[in-house]
Amino acid sequence: MNVQVRTDHNIEGSAELNKYVESLLVEHFARFKNAITRIEVHLSDENAGKFGVGDKRCLLEARIANHQPIVVSHHADNIHVAIEVASNKLLRSLDNMVGKLTNHDSPKDLYQEKSELEVDED
Fold first, then answer.
1. Mean pLDDT over all residues of the chain?
2. Residue ranges of the domains in the chain?
């Protein structure tokens, strides 16, 4: 899983910030490491350095093999809080997607079970 961190001109990018973001995302998404090819992190200060409530934004875009990308974002007063909450949102979105892909009660599965039972009775 490749993590790319991008900042706007109002947020100072640093090696420490990149390391923090990468370690957090690798830990959160460890169970999806084979499915996720890349996570793009876009950090911005939408108030251009002025003080404001909820002006720090984290947008996460997860690229999943053979599927459309999943995008979530969160605004907060602190960039670290925005990153953590956005990663939790992305985790819930991925869990939801996996749940939809592994539907155990599909009519096709029930139909196969009935045909197998009818063969066993003969």
1. 81
2. 2-121
Q: What is the DSSP string of 30-77?
A: GGGTTTEEEEEEEEEETTTTS--TT-EEEEEEEEETTS--EEEEEEES
Whether the pTM exceeds 0.85: the reply is no
Tell me if the domain spanning 2-121 has CATH number 2.40.340.10: no
Question: Residue 35 — φ and ψ, nearest 5°?
Answer: -90, -35
Alpha-carbon torsion, ordered 107, 109, 111, 112, to 10 deg: 170
pLDDT of residue 111: 36
Q: Which residues is 4 bridged to in the sheet? A: 40
What type of residue sits at position 82? A
